[in-house]
Design goal:
With about 150 residues, this protein is an alpha+beta fold. It has two domains: about 5-50, no CATH class; about 65-150, Gyrase A, domain 2 (2-Layer Sandwich). About 50% of the residues lie in helices and about 25% in strands. Strands 3-4-6-5 form a four-stranded antiparallel beta sheet. Helix 4 packs antiparallel against helix 5 (about 105-110). The mean pLDDT is about 90.
Length: about 150
């Protein structure tokens, strides 16, 4: 079986089962008639950009980065709905005012997103500052965040 077919099979197995370890994945592949080494599995996990996320049954399981991006987006939507006070663009910055105690969780979510043009975040108790690479990118990031806010 070539590499592409093996990667497709791994994708199918990760979608169907809660695979928690490389050994479990190796056994599932063996059950499908494919014997692979742990080193090959490790390279395939890297190639597929699999990550570990909490599983329903406890512990961690392999998942796709896309799933994780979806989770971050959903968390941000909830956070914007529940704790956002205001957002304002000031030159290179997007100033996000939150309820007291929520700024750091906003910052962590902003850092998890792939916001093009974001240089970083600085957070206090009720304010998160998104530092942008240009005023234009600050406006664009503000618009992206407004779209998240408008989606609920």
């Amino acid at each position: 079986m070539n590499r592409e077919m093996r990667l497709q099979l791994i994708t199918q197995l990760i979608s169907e089962y809660e695979v928690k370890t490389q050994e479990e994945l190796q056994q599932l592949l063996l059950d499908k008639g494919l014997k692979v080494t742990q080193a090959t599995i490790s390279r395939d996990i890297h190639a597929l950009q699999l990550i570990k996320v909490p599983s329903k049954g406890g512990g961690l399981k392999y998942s796709f980065k896309l799933d994780q991006d979806y989770i971050v987006h959903e968390k941000l939507k909830r956070k914007l709905r529940d704790a956002l006070i205001s957002m304002e663009v000031i030159q290179y910055f997007v100033v996000v005012k939150t309820l007291p105690g929520h700024a750091h969780s906003f910052g962590a979510l902003f850092d998890s997103l792939n916001l093009e043009g974001k240089a970083g975040t600085i957070c206090g108790n009720d304010t998160c500052l998104i530092i942008c690479r240009s005023p234009e990118e600050a406006n664009r990031i503000n618009e992206q965040l407004q779209q998240f806010q408008d989606s609920f």
